[in-house]
């Protein structure tokens, strides 16, 4: 009996051994389940997106779509939004690519129910519904809050440069734009004159036979050139205003220095540099001379002065530094007035204000890898990696974006707290790097904040070598109070959370959108909200317990 069992097992193993390759049967009859709900596992992201969209209020988006009327019925806006949301979750933003995937990818086929919309429909839907993406972002954030996420105890704010849908080579200066605008005006006048001649001869075509102006130039090149010229004018006006503000601030510093007041900070370059440096030197010389005279007066009165005698005026460190500042200001003034400097200024001028004729709202942004044509995207991230607020700016500097972003995060936390009542839906502290440091940002009303005063490595080195304890001294300026706090053990530990909070969030967000698909400030802001919504949806889906 045992021999029979063994022989049967040997025969079975021999029968199971493959003799040839697996057959390739491309003519196999369709064997997929007839129900689409069985095409994907129950915990797939597609089902979560569809369930979430059913729970959202999309009245504003539905209002942009035609319902009924003459012609074929329009696509369901929830289906189109689902395609966009899932596409952004997968880093696919091209409407043409989404259209192709609707025929080749099972998840996209389920989303569109095999009724594939063309790319024009998707692109128009994204453009027509851009005003509703902010509300969509807010509603998804509310879902995260109700699910116990979006913990606002620590909120970190940071900016990142995102490329625009425009080439850096499409930037033009004011002269080129002015010539193009003048040429367009001249061409329009010539066309008007020709039409006047034809009209007098009775050969002018009827109004209905002429193409609309919007169809003669499908890309709107003339409109973009005019917009670029307006942008250059606006940039020049902003630069003039900034120059006036800097000149006024430098003049006030000089007047305070000439009045004998102590002025903190480096002397700014410009026409007031030498005068302030001289006033600073006179003040330091007078201060040290007064110490010497005070000691001499005590000795003359027969009193014994306390402490070591003051060093001579010319040997005091403050006087030496002030004299070096005067020498540097004189050298800079001589360099600016020398003939060699004039030749250099003619050959090496600063970059002129330019505007991009593809996306006039985009700007040249400096990055670690050179210049980038794009926008400055601001992101506020909670301690559990939920994006609480996003904004888009045109300035490469982050400083002016701090208070709007802090207000947006505060409003988001307040809205969540009103609904959930959870204590972690109240902002504990806002963290930001040195790019946001200014007296206005440090002293503005709002929640508690930690803003770096200097680079992180320098800040940590100072805190390690010169640690402090307790609260700052009475009368400390906002900058001095912040510097004191960042040198305490508690401040160092709290600020360390900044990098671990916001930088992974920005890195994962840029996996979704590393380049804008749309053009214009309002359009890219809506697209960033759409990408941030996809980011939060994936975080909620991954944190949800599986079936």
Give a verbal description of the structure:
Strands 1, 4, 5, 6, 7 and 8 form a 6-stranded mixed beta sheet that branches. This protein has helices spanning 2-16, 45-55, 59-62, 77-89, 95-104, 106-112, 119-128, 133-146, 174-201, 213-216, 221-258, 273-300, 317-337, 339-347, 402-420, 439-443, 456-465, 478-486, 489-495, 497-512, 521-543; strands at 154-163, 171-173, 354-356, 363-367, 370-382, 387-393, 429-432, 449-451. Mean pLDDT is 82; it is low at 1-6, 207-216 and 345-350. The chain folds into 3 domains: 36-128, no CATH class; 150-166 and 374-516; 169-188 and 218-358, no CATH class. By secondary structure, the chain is α/β, with parallel strands linked by helices. α4 (77-89) packs across α21, α11 runs parallel beside α12 (273-300) and α12 (273-300) runs antiparallel to α13.
Compact summary:
This protein has 547 residues and is of the alpha/beta class.
List keywords for this structure.
21 helices, 3 domains, alpha/beta, 547 residues
Write the layout of secondary structure elements.
Blueprint (H helix, E strand, L loop, with lengths): L1 H15 L28 H11 L3 H4 L14 H13 L5 H10 L1 H7 L6 H10 L4 H14 L7 E10 L7 E3 H28 L11 H4 L4 H38 L14 H28 L16 H21 L1 H9 L6 E3 L6 E5 L2 E13 L4 E7 L8 H19 L8 E4 L6 H5 L5 E3 L4 H10 L12 H9 L2 H7 L1 H16 L8 H23 L4
Parallel strand pairs: 1-7, 7-8
Antiparallel strand pairs: 1-5, 2-3, 4-5, 5-6
Helix pairs in contact: 2-4, 4-21, 5-6, 5-7, 8-15, 8-21, 9-11, 11-12, 12-13
């Amino acid at each position: 009996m045992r021999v029979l069992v063994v022989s049967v097992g040997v025969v079975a193993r021999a029968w199971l051994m493959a003799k040839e390759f697996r057959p390739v049967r491309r003519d196999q009859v369709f064997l997929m389940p007839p129900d689409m709900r069985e095409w994907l596992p129950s915990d797939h992201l597609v089902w979560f997106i569809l369930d979430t969209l059913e729970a959202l209020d999309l009245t504003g988006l539905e209002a942009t779509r035609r319902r009924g009327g003459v012609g074929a019925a329009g696509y369901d806006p929830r289906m189109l939004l689902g395609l966009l949301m899932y596409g952004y979750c997968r880093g696919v933003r091209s409407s043409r690519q989404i259209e192709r995937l609707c025929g080749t990818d099972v998840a996209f086929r389920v989303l569109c129910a095999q009724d594939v919309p063309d790319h024009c429909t998707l692109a128009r839907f994204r453009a027509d519904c851009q005003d509703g993406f902010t509300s969509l972002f807010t509603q998804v954030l509310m879902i995260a809050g109700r699910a116990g996420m979006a913990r606002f105890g620590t909120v970190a704010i940071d900016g990142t440069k995102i490329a625009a849908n425009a080439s850096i080579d499409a930037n033009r200066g004011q002269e080129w734009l002015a010539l193009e605008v003048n040429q367009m005006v001249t061409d329009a006048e010539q066309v008007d004159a020709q039409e006047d001649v034809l009209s007098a001869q009775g050969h002018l075509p009827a109004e209905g036979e002429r193409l609309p102006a919007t169809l003669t130039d499908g890309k709107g090149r003339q409109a973009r050139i005019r917009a670029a010229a307006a942008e250059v004018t606006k940039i020049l006006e902003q630069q003039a205003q900034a120059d006036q503000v800097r000149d006024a601030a430098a003049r006030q510093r000089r007047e305070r220095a000439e009045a004998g007041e102590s002025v903190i900070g480096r002397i700014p370059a410009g026409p007031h540099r030498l005068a302030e440096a001289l006033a600073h030197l006179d003040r330091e010389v007078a201060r040290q001379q007064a110490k010497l005279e005070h000691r001499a007066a005590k000795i003359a009165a027969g009193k014994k002065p306390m402490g070591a005698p003051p060093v001579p005026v010319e040997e005091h460190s403050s006087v030496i530094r002030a004299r070096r500042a005067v020498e540097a200001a004189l050298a800079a003034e001589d360099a600016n007035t020398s003939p060699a400097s004039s030749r250099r200024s003619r050959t090496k001028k600063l970059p002129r204000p330019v505007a991009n004729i593809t996306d006039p709202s985009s700007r040249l942004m400096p990055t670690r890898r050179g210049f980038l044509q794009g926008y400055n995207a601001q992101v506020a991230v909670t301690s559990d990696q939920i994006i609480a607020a996003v904004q888009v700016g045109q300035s490469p500097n982050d400083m002016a974006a701090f208070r709007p972003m802090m207000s947006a995060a505060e409003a988001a936390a307040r809205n969540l707290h009103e609904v959930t009542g959870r204590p972690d839906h109240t902002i504990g502290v806002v963290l930001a790097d040195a790019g946001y440091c200014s007296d206005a940002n440090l002293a503005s009303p709002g929640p508690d904040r930690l803003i770096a005063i200097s680079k992180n490595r320098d800040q940590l080195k100072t805190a390690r070598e010169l640690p402090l304890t307790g609260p700052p001294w009475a009368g400390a300026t906002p900058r001095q109070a912040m510097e004191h706090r960042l040198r305490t053990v508690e401040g160092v530990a709290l600020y360390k959370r900044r990098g671990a909070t916001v930088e992974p969030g920005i890195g994962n967000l840029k996996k979704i959108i590393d380049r804008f698909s749309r053009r214009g400030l309002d359009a890219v802001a809506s697209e960033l909200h759409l990408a941030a919504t996809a980011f939060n949806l994936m975080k909620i889906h991954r944190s949800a317990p599986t079936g």
